[in-house]
Amino acid sequence: MNGEHSMMDGMPTVHLAGTVAGAQYQNVLLEQKQNDNISVDMDKNACVKDIFVNCHDTFATNPSVQSMIHDAKSHFETLTNNHALQTKIFHGYGSNYMKSAKISPDAYVQMAIQLATYRLFKKQAATYEATQVRAFLHGRTEVTRAVTLESEAFVKAMGSHNHFSQSDNELAETSNKVNLLRLATERHVKSLRQAGKGFGVDRHLTGLSLCVKDGEPMPDLFTHPLYQRSKHWRVSTSHLTHPNFVNWGYGEVVSDGVGLSYSIHKDSCTFCVVALKEHEWTEKLGDLLEDALLEMKAILAMDGGQNSELTRSKL
After folding, report:
1. Inter-CA distances, 283 with 162, 186, 264, 273, 279, Å
2. Fewest beta carbons less than 10 Å away: which of 8, 66, 169, 255?
């Protein structure tokens, strides 16, 4: 299923897809047969058919319409050909393990994303997580920001490269890293709850900026370089898990960014990474996500006094 995201977010889309996927073929055939047996007004039916044929003929012969169709196809082909998509299915563990570690699965994966993108970009980048505010009339989404002082402390402690080429003894200050991980995930959960209750900042600030009328000066806040940087969403994330679907995703929102959707199942995690081909980021980021998840489990195991010889083969 392909759709335009600006007018529909993930929840209604996955509900529709789930309904279609859950429909039994025999029931669909039976319903169609019943509909075919219902009598119809032949005059009205003929009228609708005539309208359809006339519209089809108009589109088929109108040069401007044909030109627009040609341009749309060309733009679509260019857009898709310029992009790379990488699906990474991580089979090491999923929400069951994260919950057993007493960490929110969503916050856990968000910190893995922070660590992976920190290593990809060599710094943290503004990260958008879509959060539902449907408890409010006309509510749709708010932003939960994953870049915090706590997530910064965690990723810097973990370092700019993975540690699988080193011995376990060289994974220094394990307890400190685990403590920083827990602080970062707890802060993320707090941010999620605040955003879900309508206390996020981004929709409010966007609304204020839209109140500026034509010809009026824009307040300094909205032109400040730091504010502009904070809204340059190089990492656009969203979490949606459905038992019938392996994968879903969307593109980047800025040219130097990535679209990063994810699903957290009981014993696995799935990521869909999309970016412009020219960056060659998608496969690399998929590997970095896997490394981050393995290392996070490794430090938790070591801190718990368990056997910490965690390698890819043993997962």
Report:
1. 16, 30, 19, 8, 11
2. 169
Residue with tokens 């929110």: 104
Rounded Cα gap, residues 33 and 123, in angstroms:
60
The per-residue pLDDT for range 263-304, each reduced to its tens digit, is 999 999 999 999 999 999 999 999 999 999 999 999 999 887
Please compute, for residue 42, the number of CA atoms within 13 A of its CA located in the half-sphere on the CB side.
0
Q: How far apart are CA 239 and CA 144, in angstroms?
A: 12
> Which tokens in the block code for residue 168?
């376990």
Band of pLDDT at residue 238, cut at 50, 70 and 90: very high
- Enumerate the β-bridge partners of residue 238: 261
How far apart (Å, rounded) are the C-alpha atoms in residues 173 and 167? 14
Token pair recorded at residue 196? 């879900």
Instruction: Residue 163: name the closest of 111, 115, 125, 117 by CA.
Output: 115
In this structure, are residues 260 and 112 in contact, taking their beta carbons and an 8 Å threshold? no
Cα(125)–Cα(147) distance, integer angstroms:
7
Length of the chain: 315
Across the strands, what pairs with 89? 270
* Residues 83 and 275: beta-carbon distance below 8 Å: yes
**Where does the chain hold its CATH 3.30.559.10 domain(s)?**
84-303
Which of the residues are catalytic?
5
- CATH number corresponding to 84-303: 3.30.559.10
Nearest of 278, 247, 279 to residue 260 by alpha carbon = 247
Sign of CA dihedral 42, 48, 52, 55: positive
pLDDT tens-digit profile of 36-90?
765 445 455 555 556 555 666 666 678 888 899 999 999 999 999 999 999 999 9
